[in-house]
Amino acid sequence: MKKFLIPLGLFLGLVIFLAIGLNRDPREIPSPLVGKPAPAFSLDTLDANAPKFGPQDMKGKVWMLNVWATWCVACREEHPVLVAFSKANQLPIVGLSYKEVQPQDEPAGKKFTPEQKLQFARDRSALWLKRHGNPYVLSAVDLDGRVGIDYGVYGVPETYVIDKEGVIRYKRVGVVTPELLQSTILPLVQKLNAS
Amino acid sequence: MNLQSVCLKWLCVAILLVMSGLAPTQAKEAALLAEDPLVEKRLIHISEELRCMVCQNESLASSRAELANDLREEVRKLIREDRSDSQIKEYLVTRYGDFVLYKPEVKPLTWVLWFGPFMLLVLAILGMAYYLRQRQSAQTGQPGLTDEDRRKVQEILKSGDAP
Fold first, then answer.
1. Which superfamily is assigned to B34-103 in CATH?
2. Residue A161, Cβ neighbours under 10 Å: how many?
3. So what's the pLDDT on residue B123?
4. Does the pLDDT of residue B87 top 50, yes or no?
5. Peptide bond into A39 cis (omega under 30)
């Protein structure tokens, strides 16, 4: 009887470990940036008349940084959630337009100049935001993805919550859902606003 | 007939034009790679031990994902700035976490990962040694029946025969 129980116990242990392993999202990797100051940058925004934007401009506010692009399919799924959320005025959402201009956007055999690239990104993003709604107070334009690297971006959309001192308190890789907003992001924002 | 050969001629011209249009871009790509063989050698060496975050089972050296391209370019830049291998890895770890390292650092958090298998091996060896010793002592500890035992058994059997 005992002899029969030992392999069964080992097998059950294995099953439990495998079940846990299989149910985890491999894209969910703890970010080393949580608890660290948001990396500084200074980027043009989608608004041609606005000055450059950097995270230091948001000092004293709890805010959300949302990495997006018009070519990003998952962003389309997320976008209505953000638009609805922005209407509640809980916290400012800043967009980071990530590598908006893709190599295939450039005319064959030619390369855009940086100015042309920025213009292209502004035009296409404006059109997209007009069609799908604009949840952002502004969108900084990261054309070459350099700022994305500093923020450890590897799968658009990504979302960060940054506190009044400019410290990253939360990072989400992938789509922000209404459930996630209710269960995790909103309570965190309330806590950060109270402190 | 005549029309056909004219068409063919133009087709050839068109193909040549398309090919000549492609050629410079290809040459440019190759030139980029061969720019500095020393940098490329170090890049390959380093990026083989780094994970591509997009296609997680590929190394940064072999991945064709766009982010991998960007990161390789970033590593190239750092190599040109004369940073050491560990500095470059540190640079990526502060952004993407330990997960970018195919060979994780040895630190308390990763002890189980590094030494766990050896601990299991030692445990298995100890378990087997224990099991074998048990079995051996079970065999040698009871060396069959003595003459006295046999006599007793016979006695019991005999007395059992009697009703």
1. Cytochrome C biogenesis protein (1.10.8.640)
2. 21
3. 96
4. yes
5. no
Nearest by CB to residue A152, choosing from B25, B96, B98, is B96
Give the separation between CA A123 and CA A105, rounded to whole angstroms.
13
Is A152 close to B98, i.e. CB distance below 8 A?
A: no
Across the strands, what pairs with A96? A67, A140
- Provide the percentage of residues in chain A whose pLDDT is more than 90: 82
pLDDT single digits (tens) A45-73: 999 999 999 999 999 999 999 999 999 99
Tally of residues, chain B: 163
A22-53 confidence digits (pLDDT tens): 888 777 777 889 999 999 999 999 999 999 99
Tokens encoding B114: 């590094």
ipTM confidence: 0.79
User: Is B95 close to A152, i.e. CB distance below 8 A?
Assistant: yes
Distance CA A50, CA A141 (A): 12
What DSSP string describes A57-95? GGTTS-EEEEEE-TT-HHHHHHHHHHHHHHHTTSS-EEE
pTM: 0.74
Quick one: pLDDT band at residue B142, thresholds 50, 70, 90?
low
Classified as helix, coil or strand, B50 is: strand
The domain spans of chain B are 34-103, 106-135
Domain ranges of chain A: 33-194
Residue A95: CA count within 13 A, CB half-sphere = 29
Distance to chain B for A28, nearest Cα, Å:
11
User: What's the token pair of residue A110?
Assistant: 């030619």
Higher pLDDT, B32 or B103: B103
pLDDT interval class at B54 (50, 70, 90): confident
How many beta-carbon pairs below 8 A join chains A and B?
37
CATH fit for domain A33-194, picks 3.30.420.40, 3.40.50.880, 3.40.30.10, 3.30.200.20: 3.40.30.10
